[in-house]
Amino acid sequence: MRKKIYIGVIGANDCGKKVAKLAHEVGQEIAKTGAILVCGGLGGVMEAACQGAKQQGGTTIGIIPGGKRTEANPYVDIPIVTGLGYARNVLVVRNSQAVIALPGKYGTLSEIAFCLNFKIPLISLSNWKIEGMLKAKTPVAAVKLALKQIK
After folding, report:
1. Which residues fall within 8 angstroms of residue 16, CB to CB, at 6 or more apart?
2. Which residues neighbour 84 within 8 Å (Cβ) at sequence distance 6 or greater?
3. Nearest to 65 by CA among 81, 44, 79, 46
4. Cα–Cα distance list, 143 to 7, 33, 72 (Å)
5. Which residues contact 64 (CB under 8 A, 6 or more apart)?
6. Mean pLDDT for the stretch of residues 6-33
7. Counting beta carbons within 10 angstroms of the beta carbon of residue 74, is it exposed (0 to 12), middle (13 to 18) or buried (19 or more)?
8. Helix axes 45-55, 17-33, angle to 10 degrees
9. What is the pTM of this model?
């Protein structure tokens, strides 16, 4: 049996069309590789990435901040409720072997910090420029780089 690979996608809960398109493409690329997409399970970047993954037949996991599975976006296959609010961000990172960061705000920044602290490979398609992040220019490049970093 082939070992499953888990790639996290982090970014804004509310995003514009340009970022949503980028996230959608990231989700598609993750699914094409057979990897499982892990995210926070809500809207914005998370929903767009999950939708992209589902369109390619991929599997999605959403680690939900609240206490109800119904809070997950409709493209999450496996909703994991936590009741932890933003503290669930650590679970998103810990359940990923590599993480792709898209534009976001302070919730995304906290996930970036967790990646760097836990030494989880972090690929940036984001607006954050932080030492330790690997930069990619396209969704295809980001997923390839993520897979290359997973040991």
Report:
1. none
2. 65, 91
3. 81
4. 8, 9, 24
5. 40, 41, 42, 71, 72, 79, 80, 81, 82, 88
6. 97
7. exposed
8. 40
9. 0.96
Residue type, 2: R
Q: Name, in order, each residue with C-beta under 8 angstroms of 4's C-beta and a sequence gap of 6 or more.
A: 35, 36
Tell me, what amino acid is at 40?
G
Q: Which residue intervals of the chain are DSSP H helices?
A: 17-33, 45-55, 89-94, 106-118, 139-149
**Residue 64 amino acid letter:** I
Q: Render pLDDT for 67-96 as a digit per residue (tens, 0 to 9).
A: 999 999 999 999 999 999 999 999 999 999
In one-letter notation, the amino acid at residue 42 is: L
CA 16 – CA 33 distance, rounded (Å): 26
Q: Which domains does the chain have, with CATH numbers?
A: 6-102+117-132 (3.40.50.450)
